[in-house]
Every structure is written in structure tokens, then in C-alpha cells.
Design brief:
The chain is mainly beta. The protein is built from no helices and ten strands. Strand 9 and strand 10 (104-108) form a beta hairpin.
């Protein structure tokens, strides 16, 4: 892709985390000010950008690219976690998908 969307409206928040979490994982809220890795078919609040000493930096807004599972079309889609990917679902949060190729989807959180 010749056009880059990274940097658009990026916001990162710091949370405590439990369990195993790595940069690049989708995360969901688990308790007040705490996150965990998102589960398959579950909603997510953002993407972990780093972990250190029990804290996780989580991008909660802006453009992200993620591995996709199944067919995802450009436009608004309800996206949920799917193992180490995202996929469309009947329920979930509408995300604006602006880039799709054979393995990747780019969307606005």
C-alpha cells in the first residue's frame, strides 16, 4: 500500500493487566482500570502497544492494521477478536475499515 494512515488520531492509555499480554494483542476491559487479552469472538477496546512491570500501553483510538480472519469488506463492520486476528460478527462495535488485502485489515478504532 502506498498510502499510510498511521498516526491518525492515535490515543494510548495505560492500564494494569492480568494474565499473559504482549504488544500486538487485542485487549478488553477486565475490571476497573485493568485489561486482559481479548478472547475469541469477543469485543475489544484496543491494541496493546507495549507491556512493562504489570502495565500495558493500549492504543484506543486511531488507525491500526491487524491480521484478518475470513472476509472483511471496506466500510463499517462489526469487528471482534478471532484468536490472533479480527473478523466480522453479527454484534460488536462498528469500526471503519479503510484498507483490506488478502491477510490484513486496516481500521479506525
Amino acid at each position: 500500500m502506498n498510502i499510510k494512515f498511521s498516526g491518525f488520531n492515535e490515543n494510548t492509555l495505560t492500564f494494569e493487566y492480568t494474565g499473559t499480554l504482549s504488544a500486538g494483542d487485542l485487549v478488553k476491559m477486565s475490571a476497573s482500570a485493568k485489561v486482559v487479552k481479548a478472547t475469541a469472538n469477543g469485543e475489544f477496546i484496543g491494541v496493546c502497544t507495549g507491556v512493562r512491570n504489570g502495565y500495558a500501553a493500549v492504543q484506543t483510538a486511531g488507525y491500526v492494521e491487524f491480521k484478518k480472519s475470513g472476509t472483511v469488506n471496506v466500510g463499517y463492520n462489526k469487528l471482534v477478536a478471532a484468536s490472533d486476528a479480527v473478523k466480522t460478527a453479527e454484534t460488536g462495535i462498528d469500526r471503519l475499515v479503510i484498507y483490506v488485502d488478502d491477510t490484513t485489515v486496516g481500521f479506525i478504532l
